[in-house]
Design goal:
- By secondary structure, the chain is mainly alpha-helical.
- It is 91% helix and 0% strand.
- The protein has six helices and no strands.
- The longest helix has 43 residues.
- The radius of gyration is 25 Å and the shape is elongated.
Length: 169
């Protein structure tokens, strides 16, 4: 009986210690995310994306059959886009504060997290954080200018083919 009680007590203490370690690690992960300005980075990224996507869609709607329908789809699209981006930002915040914490917890040891925190507190880490929005914007611009037109052309071809296959009324 004493051995069983001792074993249970030992297991209980180990589980409390492990839980405390996990909580400490998760708090450090949240500190890391705070240092990395994850919330503002997400907001800036979504703002840049929504602006770029709205311009692209306005061009698509201006140059297609929608123009001939007499309906201003670009204004409607802008409203839908705004609501969609707001919902996406909220989901991204949940992702950062919940899911990403668990993911980082799974993939990185506490020593890794502490090293990341040290880096992001350094001058080089702060410079990286300061330049990241500009880098992201440049990447988005490159994607928009270099790759998006080809995707748009392909989509337009598909839409035209789809319209040809539709029965005439």
């Amino acid at each position: 009986m004493k051995k069983t009680l001792l074993t249970l007590t030992l297991l209980f203490c180990i589980s409390i210690y492990a839980h405390a370690q996990t909580e400490t690690k998760k708090q450090k992960i949240k500190t890391l995310f705070s240092l990395m300005h994850q919330d503002s980075l997400i907001n800036k990224t979504f703002d840049a994306m929504s602006s770029s996507m709205a311009k692209q869609m306005a061009t698509i709607f201006k140059d297609t059959l929608y123009k001939n329908a007499g309906i201003n789809y670009s204004d409607r699209y802008a409203k839908i886009m705004q609501k969609s981006m707001e919902a996406s930002k909220e989901n991204a915040k949940k992702l950062i504060n919940e899911d990403m914490v668990d993911i980082y917890d799974r993939y990185f040891a506490i020593e890794d997290i502490e090293s990341f925190i040290t880096f992001y507190r350094s001058a080089a880490g702060q410079k990286m954080l300061a330049k990241l929005p500009e880098i992201t914007k440049d990447i988005m611009t490159a994607m928009t200018v270099k790759y998006q037109p080809g995707i748009q052309q392909s989509m337009m071809k598909e839409m035209e083919e789809m319209m040809k296959d539709m029965p005439q009324q």
